[in-house]
Design brief:
alpha/beta; Lysozyme-like; Muramoyl-pentapeptide Carboxypeptidase, domain 1; 2 domains; 9 strands; 32% helix
Length: 335
């Protein structure tokens, strides 16, 4: 959690319309333009991969799909970019319900409620954190201007996530409460991918990844999650060193050989326009098997998105054009 106190949670429907506050960050807003998302890793990131010792620019991993503040319908705010690179990455938990909701619409509603809670109740000028990772594995820009600053790599928007010590720190908020439980496999995978990308763009060393409680008296990011931050640091370091996304199995996460379809779907990455690699190729083959023929290119481009939307409509699920846990689950049934 950031430094905003915690109101009680009242669940709402998928788009979160209404004043329902979430436990640490929350609020409602207009229906988002779901296509406004950025592949954070793309070619621009490769150019700076060498800024972290041991990184491998020639085969640098792709960053995650990050949905902008415009995509989820953020309030208009004015932000200023601080010159220079941040030197630390701080991990938070929202202290919100460990929901089973994994849809993109849920993620967007969460972001809107978070911003409203920070601005209306805590008095912040925007969401306190720079980025948010949901339990469904969706990555979102939290504080307006953070994604553009990350892509530029030479400045950042000062956040409001570590009271009195925000200078030089990027904050990532993880949906959920992790005093005893841990992030979902999809969420942890997305966090590793996002954290490695942030470290790569800014030259932050994996050893400089910390929890909120390491900077001030708080339970955040929860006892169970804080105990796994060494694992996160190692996964980020291995990802940067090898150029291949490296994700450990956290305690309680199902092992690959014993996973059912639901567990496997929850552990697969969220894919969207700009994604590439073996997971995209697998999705394309599954789409074709489901009757929505698309070339097996390994690149998520216009034809793949159209096939995904057609498949989602046929399955009567939210047709947002992104492959998250729900869509993966339906696709796997055709494998």
């Amino acid at each position: 959690m950031t430094d905003a106190p915690c109101p009680p949670h009242r669940p709402r429907h998928a788009l979160g319309v209404g004043p329902a506050p979430l436990p640490r960050h929350r609020a409602a807003g207009p229906t988002p333009a779901g296509r406004r998302a950025v592949l954070a890793g793309a070619a621009a990131a490769v150019a700076s991969a060498g800024t972290v010792a041991g990184a491998a620019p020639a085969h640098a991993f792709a960053g995650p799909v990050v949905h902008t503040t415009a995509a989820w319908g953020a309030r208009r705010v004015r932000t200023e970019r601080t010159p220079g690179r941040p030197t630390a990455l701080v991990i938070h938990h929202m202290a919100s319900p460990n929901t089973s909701a994994t849809s993109l619409s849920h993620a967007f509603a969460l972001a809107r409620r978070c911003q409203a809670d920070h601005m209306d109740r805590a008095g912040f000028d925007d969401s306190g954190q720079h980025f948010t990772v949901t339990r469904g594995g969706h990555c979102l820009e939290g504080r307006t201007g953070s994604l553009a600053a990350l892509r530029a790599g030479d400045g950042y928007v000062t956040g409001a996530h570590v009271g009195g010590a925000n200078t030089g720190k990027i904050g990532v908020e993880c949906e959920g409460t992790y005093t005893e439980a841990l992030p979902t496999p999809a969420q942890y995978r997305a966090l590793v991918q996002l954290a490695a990308h942030i470290c790569r763009r800014y030259g932050i060393r994996p050893s400089a990844i910390s929890g909120h409680r390491d900077h001030r008296a708080t339970q955040c990011p929860g006892d169970a999650f804080h105990a796994q931050l060494d694992t996160l640091r190692r996964d980020v370091a291995r990802t940067l060193d090898s150029g291949v996304l490296s994700v450990s199995q956290l305690p309680g996460h199902p092992a690959g050989a014993r996973r059912g379809a639901a567990e496997e779907a929850a552990s697969l990455p969220v894919l969207g326009p700009g994604s590439s690699g073996q997971h995209v190729r697998r999705a394309q083959r599954l789409l074709t098997a489901a009757g929505h023929r698309v070339p097996d290119t390994g690149t998520f481009a216009t034809r793949t998105r159209a096939a995904v939307v057609a498949f989602q409509r046929a399955e009567r699920i939210v047709a947002d054009g992104f492959i998250g846990p729900v869509t993966w689950g339906r696709l796997l049934s055709h494998g």
